[in-house]
Amino acid sequence: MKYTGKYKKMADNLREEGYDEPTIKELIQYEIERDNYLKMHDITELEAARVWQQIPEDVQRRILKNAYCVKCGSTTFTEKYNLRNNFLGIQVNGYCSKCGGRITRVVEISES
């Protein structure tokens, strides 16, 4: 089976560790189901939260005021948001402070 993004990386790592394809498929399916559950329930991933905490608070505030709502054009998140790992860094998911529409902002994290 072909995987993309983090699932491809996960499959490659599992292959390197010697796992067979049926086991890899089962583990990746579990991860996909877990990710879908987290998305549906607005739950923050622990590793993403750790990365977020390393960002200075003033920069966090600027990030939360620099998104774009396709419904109304507002640029600010409400207080309720969650953090997820993304292949570029972390992804901030939340709601528009003006209309309540869902908005997302990706924060690129360099590995230097």
TrEMBL record:
This is Uncharacterized protein. It comes from Granulicatella balaenopterae.
